[in-house]
Amino acid sequence: MLASTMDSTARSLPVPRVLVVEDEPDIAALIAYQLTREGFRVETAGSGTEALDAIAREIPDLVILDRMLPGLSGDKVLMRLRGDSQTARLPVLILTAKRDQEERIEGLELGADDYLAKPFSPKELVLRARAILRRAHDAGARSEGKVLRAGPLRVDVGSNETTLEGVELNLTPTEFRLLLALMERRGATQSRQQLLEKAWDVESGVSGRIQTRTVDMHVRRLRAKLGDVGAWIQTIRGFGYRLKVPEGRD
Ligand code: CA
After folding, report:
1. What does the domain layout of the chain look like in residue ranges?
2. Whole-model pTM above 0.85?
3. Which of 16, 18, 135, 217 is deepest in the core (most CB within 10 A)?
């Protein structure tokens, strides 16, 4: 019934609008130049405050956000974006000066969709930007159709029905919301905190009171109900979970 809306042939993307947030003019100009050349529409912001103003005026398709900004840091900008329902799912690619694994984890924990360490090649940046936009576009198309798919797994958001190879799974409402949260941002790692907020409908800040271990417990149950596909819910050590569809299974 909804198959047409999820057809992967519907790939023609409009010109993507990218906001580049970087206080170093040379780097900002280089990124803007490269993205414009590749057909993106680019706006730049030199500070976190400027970025939030620009986003308030018009929500872009992607934000490329430097972590090190004077005043309001990139992390704070990202937190604000994630805390606002209008921009909670706005794709964000974080730029950082450090290659450190800790930095990467921190950036992803704050809800970035991807991470790129400086110095990066402009080509790599464009590839990452395209990948994020493609993922966001696919996720958008799926939720418009109210059906999300990952390989043999199908979640109907309208009817709360989950099937695996066409067989209905008996998920509890919490397991359903947890799976939905993972599928909506598939490929992206989400912290236990983020999953708590989505699947348990817990306000940010209050959720510390609920054991994040609760998430682990529900993930275990969900994995068990998903059989082989359960392994697609990957544990990202010390951080959280992501749904990763193995190549060729989608
Ligand atoms: Ca900077």
Report:
1. 2-139, 144-243
2. no
3. 18
Query: Residue 233's beta-bridge partner residues?
Result: 243
Cα 26 to averaged position of ligand 1 atoms, centre (Å):
10
Ligand 1 centre from 73 Cα, in Å? Answer: 9
Using alpha carbons, select from 151, 141, 137 the residue that is nearest to residue 5.
141
Contact 117, 107 (CB under 8 A): no
Which CATH architecture fits 2-139?
A: 3-Layer(aba) Sandwich (3.40)
Cα 13 to ligand 1 centre (Å): 30
What residues of the chain score a pLDDT lower than 70? 1-13, 98-109, 139-145, 201-211
Provide the residues around ligand 1 (an ion) whose CB is within 5 A: 23, 66, 68
Decide if 94 contacts 115 (C-beta within 8 A). yes
Q: Which fold has domain 144-243?
A: Arc Repressor Mutant, subunit A (1.10.10)
Quote the ligand 1 centre to 48 CA distance (angstroms).
10
